[in-house]
C-alpha cells in the first residue's frame, strides 16, 4: 500500500463480476478487504430460471481472499441462506467504514443488529445508532453505503411501512425483501 496526497491508502484493487438472481453485481476489493458492491438497475423482476442464476463471470482467477469471501457470502445469500451464519463476512476496506463517523456507525449498527428477513425504520435505526433525531441522516448513510446487500440497507424502510428509496431501484429492494421473507419462512 502506498500513501497518496489525501492520506488515503492506494490499494491494488481487484474486480469481479457475479451473475446473480438480480443481475450482474460488480465487486471490488484489495488484499485488505472489500471496497464496493455495485448493483445493477433492475427494470423487471427476475423469475424462474433467472432467479436461480449464480456464476462468477469475470475476475475469478485474480480474486483476493476478501473477494472470495464476498462471492461465497453472496452465493449463500441468494441460493443457500441457511449457510450464511456459518460463513465469515469479508473484511471491509472502504474509507467510509474506516472512519468514526455517524454514517459508519449507522452502517455498522445495521450490519450487526438487523438480521436476515427483518426490517427496520429509518427512525429506529437512528435510535439504535445513538441519535434518535437523525432519521434523515440515516437516509444519507443508506445512500452512501458502499457494500449493499452485505450491509443490508435494503432492510431499512419508512415508518409507514413503505419501502422507501434504494440505490439499486425500488424493484430490487422489493425483490430482496421478499426473497428474505420467503427464505426465512423456509429456515
From TrEMBL:
Protein name: Methylated-DNA--protein-cysteine methyltransferase
Database matches in NCBIfam families: ogt (TIGR00589)
Organism whose genome encodes this protein: Rynchops niger
Domain Methylguanine DNA methyltransferase ribonuclease-like residues, every copy: 17-90
Record's catalysed reaction(s): a 4-O-methyl-thymidine in DNA + L-cysteinyl-[protein] = a thymidine in DNA + S-methyl-L-cysteinyl-[protein]; a 6-O-methyl-2'-deoxyguanosine in DNA + L-cysteinyl-[protein] = S-methyl-L-cysteinyl-[protein] + a 2'-deoxyguanosine in DNA
Homology family: Belongs to the MGMT family.
UniProt keyword annotations, A-Z: DNA damage, DNA repair, DNA-binding, Metal-binding, Methyltransferase, Nucleus, Phosphoprotein, Transferase, Zinc
Localisation per UniProt entry: Nucleus
Designated gene of the protein: Mgmt
